[in-house]
What we know:
Radius of gyration: 18 Å
CATH architecture of the largest domain: 3-Layer(aba) Sandwich
CATH topology of the largest domain: Rossmann fold
Shape: globular
Helix content: 25-40%
Strand order of the largest sheet: 3-2-1-4-5-11-10
Distance between the termini: 35 Å
Strand content: 25-35%
Bound molecules: S-adenosylmethionine
Amino acid sequence: xTARAPSYHDLAGWYDALYDARGKDxxxxxxxLLELAGSRGVAVTSLLDVxxxxxxxxxxxxxxxxxxxxxxxSADMLTIAAARLxxxxxxxxxxxxxxxxxxxxxxxxxxxxxxxxxxxxxxLDAAVAAMARHVAPGGMLLVEPWLTPEQVREDGVRDIVxxxxxxxxxxxxxxxxxxxxVLALSFAWAVATxxxxxxxxxxxxxxxxxxxxxxxxxxRAGLAGExxxxxxxxxxxxxxxxxxxxP
Length: 247
Ligand SMILES: C[S@@+](CC[C@H](N)C(=O)[O-])C[C@H]1O[C@@H](n2cnc3c(N)ncnc32)[C@H](O)[C@@H]1O
C-alpha cells in the first residue's frame, strides 16, 4: 500500500485540511449511515470502520455507538486517528484485502471509496470477504464504493484544491482518464512550509466495477447484497453497497 499511494503516508498531516477545504461533512455522513442501519432493524452496539483514515467518521460514530474500532493500512493516518479518538477506540494497522481482527461487529463500514484501492476483481472479492467475516449475525456491511463505469466521464476530470493550516499551505492538482475498465489518476501536491516547498506526485489505477459486480462480491461473501443509487447525506454521490448477514 505504501508504494501504491504514498500520499496516505507522506501527506497524512494534510488530509483533513484538504477535505475540510472541500466541505466534507463527516458527521452528517455518519448519522445518515447509522439511520440507514437502524431503519433496516440493525441494533448498532458495535461498529468497525475499515480504511478509517484519520478517524473522522469514527469520531461521529463514537458518540452514538457503544463500541467502535477502526483499521487502516497507513500507520501515519492511524497516528492522526489515535490522537483524535483517544485510547477508548481500538485502531488496527491492517490491509483491507486480508485481515482478521478475531471478532465481529454489528456494522462494518468502508467509506469514501477506500475499496477502490484494490487491483482487480479478485482483490475486490478478497476485501469484501474479509469485511464480511467481521459482520455479526443480523449485522450489516456498508461500503461506499468507488466510481462505477457509468459514473465516469469519458473525457476525465481535471481538479484543483488548496488548503491552509498553521504550518503552511498545500495545493493538489489531479487529472483522471478512463483506460478501459480502469480509471487512471494522476496527482501532484505542492506543500509550502517555513522550511521551503516540497512536492509529491502519485499515479493510481483504480478499477471500475459495476453495481452488479459489487453486489456479487457481497453475495459471494455469504451476505445478502444490495445496491442503493443514492443515500441522502453521503456527499460523494457514488451510491452505497449493503450486505446483510442473516440473524
Ligand atoms: C480516501 S481515504 C478514506 C479514509 C476515510 N475512510 C475517510 O473517509 O476519510 C482511503 C484510505 O484507505 C486507506 N487504504 C488504502 N489502501 C489500503 C489497503 N490496501 N488496506 C487498508 N487501507 C488502505 C488509506 O490509507 C486511506 O486512509
